[in-house]
Amino acid sequence: MEKTGFRLPTEAEWEFVCRANTTSTYSFGEPVELLRRYAWSNINSHNRSWLVGLLKPNGLGLFDMHGNAWEWCHDRWDAESGDGVDAVVKNQQSRVLRGGAFNAQPEYVRSGDRYTIQPVTRLNSYGFRPARTHP
To answer: 31: number of CA atoms within 13 Å, CB side?
Structure first.
């Protein structure tokens, strides 16, 4: 029997929906000047998070994939390879975060940027975006 319901997305799932069928630095293209239309970062956030949906969505219709809050992914950070690993995560093991946050510089809210920290760490710049598992 397969599990159904909500979960954290894998790192690969998160990047797929963030990129929205693009290969550019950001889902909207390359010009960093457009970032303030799609993302809350240190250039426009006034050092706080914002309600989701106030800026433009990416090509798949998802809001705030860049910036606003670092998003937890299911994958455990593998310190040796620097890759995410699909495995059970314990509090002492680092987990992958993606997307950047309201207090991040533009280079840290790009589609390919990654961060890692232990799940016991709590900050107002961390959040999550649930994924849905269907039977």
So the answer is: 4
pLDDT along the chain (135 residues), means of 10: 80 95 95 96 97 97 97 81 63 87 97 90 93 84
Measured between alpha carbons, how far is 51 from 29 in angstroms, rounded to an integer?
23
Whose CA is closest to 52, among 41, 42, 62? Answer: 62
> Which residue range forms the structural domain that includes residue 54?
5-133
Check residue 1 and give its pLDDT: 41
Q: First vs last Cα of the chain: how many Å apart?
A: 9
Write the CATH number for 28. 3.90.1580.10
Rounded-to-5 percentages of helix, strand, coil across the chain:
15, 25, 60
The tokens 């998003």 sit on which residue?
71
Helix (H) or strand (E) holding 11: helix 11-19
**Count: domains in the chain:** 1
Length of the chain (residues):
135
